[in-house]
Amino acid sequence: MTIKHLKSVLFVLTFVTACIYEGNSQVDYDKYPKASNSYFIKDVYAYTNGEMSTSMTNIVIKDGFISEIGPRVKQPKGAIPLELDSMYVYPAFIDVLSHPLKSEEKKDRDDVKFPGLPSDLIAGITPDQSMTVKLKSEKVSLGKMRENGFGISQLAFDHGMLPGSTSIVLLADATDARGLTETTNQVLQFKGAGGVYPNTIIGVMAKFRDLYRNAEAYDSNQKAYSQSATGVSLPTSSQAIAALVPLTQGKETLYIRTKKKLNNYRAIQLKEELGFNAVLIDPVDITGIEQDLKDSRLPIVFSTTMAKEVKSPERVKDSTYSQLDLETLELKEKAFDAYMSRVNQVNRAIDLEIPVAFASLEKSGSDIKESMALMVENGMLESDAINALTMSPAKILGIEKLAGSIAKQKVASLMITDKPYFEEKSNIRTMIVGTEVHEYEAKAKDKKEGSSDIDPVGKWSFTLETPGGDDTGKIIIEPAGDQYTVTIYQDSDSDDQKVINDVDLEGSNMEFGFSVTEGSMSVNVEVTLEFLGENELEGNVKYGDFGTFPLMGDKTSAPE
Amino acid sequence: MKMSTSRIILTTIFALSILAISAQQISKPTYGPVLLKGATIYTVTEGIIEGDVLIEENLITQVGQDLDGGDALVIDCNGKRIYPGFMDSGCKIGLAEIGAVSLTQDFNELGSFTPHMKALTAVNPSSVHIPITRVNGVLTAFTIPAGGLFPGQGALINMHGYTPESMSAGFEGHLLNWPSSGRRHRWDRRTDEEINKDKEKALKKLNEFWQSVFAYANISSPEGYKPQLETLKDVAKGKAKLLVEVNKKGDILDAITWVNENEVDAIFTGVAEGWRVADSLAKYEIPVITGPILDNPSRDSDRYDTPYTNAGKMAKAGVLVAIRTNESDNVRNLPFNAAFAANYGMGVETAVEAITINPAKIFGVDDQLGSIEEGKQANLFVCDGDPFEMKTRITHVFINGYNIPIESRQTLLYDEFLERDPGLNIKD
Amino acid sequence: MIQTTQHKTWIGLMATLLIILTMTHNIQGQEMGDVLIKNGTVITIEDGVKENTDVLIRDGKIEQIGEGISIRDIKTIDADGKYVMPGIIDAHSHLGLDAVNEATNPVTAEVWVGDALNPYDVGLYRALAGGVTTAHAMHGSANAIGGQCETIKHRWGEMNPERWRMKDAPRTIKFALGENPMRVHGERNNVAPRTRMGMEQEFRRSFAAAKEYKKEKLIASSNKNSQRPEYSLRLETLADILDGNVIIHCHSYRADEILMLMKVLEDYGVEDICFQHVNEGFKVAPELAEFGATASVFSDWWAYKFEVYYSTAYNATILTRNGVITSINSDSRELIRHLYHEAAKTQRYGDLTDNEALRLITINPAIQLGIEDRVGSIKIGKDGDIAIFENHPLSVYATPVYTIVDGVVRFNINEDPNDVRVDIDPKEKVPAFYESHIHDHELEGCMQGTELSTHSH
Question: Does C11 fall in a domain?
């Protein structure tokens, strides 16, 4: 155990002790003590060494730490048993960067006389703003992240190019139970100040260099002053510059939010030039630049919503292929390939041995499971996925001795599920974060989101508004397993029909397409329907390049 | 023969002396019968003829060998070529003087429905742009308003005259900016949904307006002052042409349907993606004014030479194609636009037609302009080689019979500053 | 391809992507190429025109020029009946930049558009398809002293902007005079400068401050006890200009403002300047020649604002005839595709010889960028940057057929696909249609990002 590690642990323990012992002059009887700070978890499968154990084991948690693990471990006296038999215990996920504050105040620019000389605050340069201080003064709710399986997160501000220093915390409810490490970091965003300096990417880059070099100068002046104050005046600097000194000393890491592909190169450029520690955050798409990123040796932290940000296959169904011209077909295939490349990019980074992890950013991680499942479905190993959410981020944050796996002496930061995490119907049932235990109900089974009340099955008549006047027709929707078969008649009185199989109902929406051939011309028709309750629907019909027209419909009869 | 040679020399000396007197003022055109002798005549409609052209008053009166011009000024055109004046079928000349000085910009009235705006009203005969344009052989231009759904009426004008009326080349035409489903430009940040909504809204506006125009046109004696409707009466009845600016593939197809349904006699302009639907344009016999050719492709995925090849592809499919610059400052580049089209698939002959007889046909003035034929207006120029080539010099320009000096403010500045006098200011 | 993609499985797709990836890496590894161009009409620019001549490029450099060069196992281009000229150089471009103007301050010497390079801009490929191999990617003209520029090579396909930089090209910086900076600061922001008088003082106060800064630094470094002075990237850059380490490229139009800046530079001992646009350069051509200033002009643009109303397309000819080293630039994603045609305009407007006209887009811009030892002519030891044309490049019927950068064929009219995009947005099923490009140059030229971008180069 290194000295640094010990110090961190002590830091945690101080918090824990403060919880237990409130020996002071006055007593608050609105509060009461916990029955115990020790817990006993019996007969569970535990995820250790990159896999789920095949036999069951027991775990003891004491004062926020894992104190014992093993099949023969007995329930200690004074420990509360948790009812988790046969469940699956994972190290809780570690979120590399999140923005927990709702909306940060917009600074008023009206009083800026010279757009080239705004205050640091207006320019978005506030590295002296501290999340650790903010957490003490403001109630910040972290429950949402925890609900999605995260036990630890690095919290950051979101405003401006240098929004402030971060704080790495346990996602506990009690503010005094969140302490994990004293380590803080800085964040850089390629965000202009909006009409004032620095307004553009070139301004932000130049301003950062300027601030960094000034921080170095300030640091060296301070050192000179402390060595020999005679004949040397007291060094001065702005608060912002002073706050960047730890970064220049290598004591902090710069988490650079890139978003655009080329911003990754800009981040690397600054790092190479100035020589600080850095991590790339939220590169939306690394297609084609994987090797350069590997060569930079920077860890990459993807957004938890990354894989979901593009709607999946805008792919032309096989049946309509012949209707498209070759050029359109190739373009659509390219778009699809680009989509797949995004889905697979984390896995490619792992294959290149780039350290990867995830960040919930503004989204609290609510898409994490869906995102990870999509990646696993497309070839990522489950063990790589779990690693990217646990040990890998622990290493990136420098807390791997404290967290990231289930082991003795580590902080109790555990996620307990009723089925293996990647099984479709698994639920997070318990989150243990330090001294806190949070329990969750299993979600209702089999119900797709919001689909409960909608039954599209039946006969519908519709009116389609086109520039050439209104058209009427009918739609028959029949069930077919989990899906539906849709028959659409373009004219109420004619037999000219299109049958579309395997249509999904998503929430109250349905989307399907078909093609219509008129002489030598063929048009792809894309239909979007929304069911408004039992007997009404509305939607849009897109006729190739001719336009999109609104459609309204009523149910004429229930299923036959 | 001797006589005429000396007259040429005299004229030249006279022109030079004017230059020496004033470097800011372009010399006055001359008028009177002229015999252009011994040229290679690119008639456009009747092939290439070796021979003479006789100009009397404002007309070409004879084309043939060994013509007798009587008292006419004889210009020896040996080794030279004669072409009908080039015609830019879409630009802003005379309506826009200085780009960033908005009060010199007369082509964009406020409002969606301004079909009653007439470009001819605002054409400035003294615009500095006019001489700069004509010395490159561009002698006629269709100058047009912009903005709005129905921005107004363009006017076909000659590049010489002291009043708009005297410049008029006999055609005015209404414009319609077809509601676009594309992005306006690279910095158009609207979402696809917003673009679609805007387009639908504009289409609705268009159709509602057109219903009013149609209803008005069919009332036997309409009451009140309704210039917006009145001016489009003939278009609604199919008696006058409508120029429809439309560029994107889907929009072109929509516009074809619209003009067919409304029985509008249409000319399509712009037509950047015409090559994608060239067969449809040909099938419905819709003439096209396209350009600029020296332009960027419309989509990032398009081949780099798409704008160069578009005109040629449409022409090959059987579309009647004219080429425009769509310029305000450099209408003089029309021949070079045509040259690029020629080089990228259209061929030189068709490209010349696209800036002479084709626009004349499209505008219905081919009985007067667009070729070297007896009885047509004397709008022509003489040059010492292929007029598309950069090294070629244009030596004579005739507009409506006027012999125009090969001068513009830009040539005058050249004459004054090539060897500036005094040169370097030496102190003390 | 289509049949296979139709039935593409996830695994199959992964394999395809892997192939794409490996391909990219091969391209990245292959920055310097070998190629033999056979039997062309070689326009060397500095050493006449050589018929039926071969040019051998090895490891990215021109190794041999002569007849009957024969090498085994080398990529060979048959240039019989074709014209082989040095790659075209554009001394004024804003292509491939994510930001062009930091318009918030009249002086922003510290910013650098090299930070904003975007090698995925398809306009760069289209420039390449017009024979352009090198471009000066410039800061805009919103500021008296704008940002530093970047000289790039058009290495289309390279994903890393670092590999687009022309290593060892001298540093350059953008200055601007006249209407643009006056409008942005004086007219819009209501801060000086609002006049051409105020413009002069921006340069004088900046250079004075840089001189002072240099002095303070010198004192600090010579005195052990003194503190390091406050660091200023802006003043560092200005000091570099005073030290002659940065070539100035100044956006300018009117004769008076051109004379003003030469006077200021003379007072501060700065020599290296290229005036950009310089539409009224023809009026002060003798003064420019005497100062040793160079000029980079439009072929025929005029009238887009008042300060260019008294222009003439004969500008390049007048400047050349007066001994000013002159180039023709594009400042436009449209013109950059046919600079050979723009150069040819000097034969319509003036009477430059073929070689004089071609110098305007080759060796002269190279001199203005300080890279004439590397590019701008076909010469042994220079970079293997070549444009090959069907028909003479100054003919209006010229067609670029190959463009070679460092010996690597980056454009081949017969083999390149129609869609050359390298960064594809999966959200865009079919790439967007842009209605207007005629205004591209207004929106993206010198005043891009200043909200005053209409007609304002």
Answer: no
Chains that touch A (3 or more CB pairs under 8 A): B, C
* B204/C contact by beta carbon, under 8 A: no
Nearest to A288 by CA among C152, C12, C424, C128: C424
CA distances from B102 to B148, C306, C454 (A): 17, 11, 11
- Tell whether C75 and C160 lie within a shared domain: no
Q: What are phi and psi of A334, to 5 degrees?
A: -65, -45
C230 and C152 housed in the same domain:
yes
Check if B249 contacts A (Cβ < 8 Å): yes
Tell me the Cα Rg of chain C.
Answer: 23
Q: What is the pLDDT of residue A453?
A: 60
Homologous superfamily of B86-369: Metal-dependent hydrolases (3.20.20.140)
**What's the number of domains chain C is made of?**
2
Q: Which CATH architecture has domain B2-84+392-417?
A: Roll (2.30)
Same domain, C233 and C277: yes
Determine the distance in angstroms separating the CA of A185 from the nearest CA of chain B, rounded to an integer: 35
- Burial grade of B428 (CB within 10 A; 0-12, 13-18, 19 or more): exposed
Distances from the Cα of B424 to the Cα of A143, C285, C320, angstroms: 79, 9, 16
Domain limits, chain B: 2-84+392-417, 86-369
C406 and C440 part of one domain: no
Measured from the Cβ of residue C293, the count of other Cβ atoms closer than 10 Å reads 25
Instruction: Give the ipTM of the model, two decimals please.
Output: 0.93
| Residue contact B184–C435, C-beta within 8 A | yes
Q: Please state whether beta strands B241-246 and B168-177 pair in parallel, antiparallel, or not at all (unpaired).
A: parallel
CATH number of the domain that C43 lies in? 2.30.40.10
Which of the residues in chain B have pLDDT under 50? 1-7, 9-10, 13-23, 427-428
Residue B117 in contact with residue B173, Cβ under 8 Å? Answer: no
CB contact under 8 A, C454 and B100: yes
Answer whether C428 touches A (CB < 8 Å).
yes
Q: Does residue A312 register a pLDDT over 90?
A: no
**Partner-chain residue, chosen from A196, A328, A338, that has the shortest CB–CB distance to C424:** A338
**pLDDT digit string, tens, across residues C173-219:** 999 999 999 999 999 999 999 999 999 999 999 999 999 999 999 99
Q: Is C113 on the interface with A (CB under 8 A)?
A: yes
Residue C5 within a domain: no
CA-nearest residue to C345 within chain B is B390
C401 with C319, same domain: the answer is no
Amino acid at B421: D
Q: Is A203 on the interface with C (CB under 8 A)?
A: yes
- The predicted model scores a pTM of 0.87
As given in the structure block, the two tokens for residue A348 are 């490619």
* Residues of chain C contacting B392 with CB distance shorter than 8 Å: 348
Strand arrangement, sheet containing A521-531: A497-503, A483-489, A469-480, A458-466, A547-557, A536-543, A521-531, A509-518, A505-506
Residue C2 lies in a domain: no
C228 with C253, same domain?
Answer: yes
For residue C266, tell me if it sits in a domain: yes
| C352 and C285 assigned to the same domain | yes
Residue A489, token pair as written in the block: 């008649």
Are C252 and C390 contained in the same domain?
Answer: no
Range of the domain at C406: 31-86+376-423
Mean pLDDT (whole number) for C379-402: 98
Structural domains of chain A ordered from first start: 131-224+236-401 (3.20.20.140), 458-557 (2.40.128.120)
The answer, for A174 touching chain C at a CB cutoff of 8 Å, is no
- Whether the ω angle into residue C193 lies within 30 degrees of 0, i.e. cis, is yes
Which are the contacts of A305, defined by CB distance < 8 A and separation ≥ 6? A361, A363, A367, A371
Instruction: Identify all chain C residues contacting B185, using CB atoms and an 8 Å cutoff.
Output: 434-437, 439-440, 443
